[in-house]
Write a structure and sequence with these properties.
disordered N terminus; 10-stranded mixed β-sheet; 10% helix; 10 strands; 217 residues; 2 helices; mainly beta; single chain
Length: 217
Amino acid sequence: MRRIVTVFAFLLCAGAAAAYAGGFSLQSVAHKEAKYYGNAHATITRIETVRIWGARPGHARWAMIRMKSRHAFRVGCPRPGPGAPGPCGAHYLEVGVDLASHKVGLDWGLTASEVSTIARALHASRWFRIFPDTPALYLRCAIPRGGTQSPTSSRSLAGTCSTVAEPSNDVRQVAFVETFRLSPSSKLSKAGWVVTLGRSGRVQSIRVTGQPPQLWK
């Protein structure tokens, strides 16, 4: 791998611009990366903007680009827990571009099963909207409080949100993990959900882990 694959971010929003002043084009950068990893004709499926936590001043904004290929990219997929990305037959390529320098600094692969299963799991509950649609992306997020509140309520806890899935060709389980503190001096709490899907892609069960603030009464 040429680059680090774990991203720490505190905002995810859709609709990053595809072209910038001076002729810089995210599409052009994306296709160069796709060519490097084995398929210059890959299709861009989405572009989103993130703000990286811990980035040096002036380099917080990044564009995350996802591309799809009929043939597997020559890139590893990040696995749950520590360790380097491993071979996985990735048909999707995730690329991060520093919007200040216009340089690529992040990339990893995703299997087709991983992408489709995460997408289905994200639609299983309104509370999952704050989680990223890819593993290896850790976001600062506003966690709603109270079981009857809207996810857009201003009453929320600052925390982190991440998505965990095994990079295989038969993904059946996705975990959504959130961490938060009740006060600046309190211990870090961890909670979330584990979504299990069947062979047909339908959600079979949703198991709560810990005590997510969304479900507080």
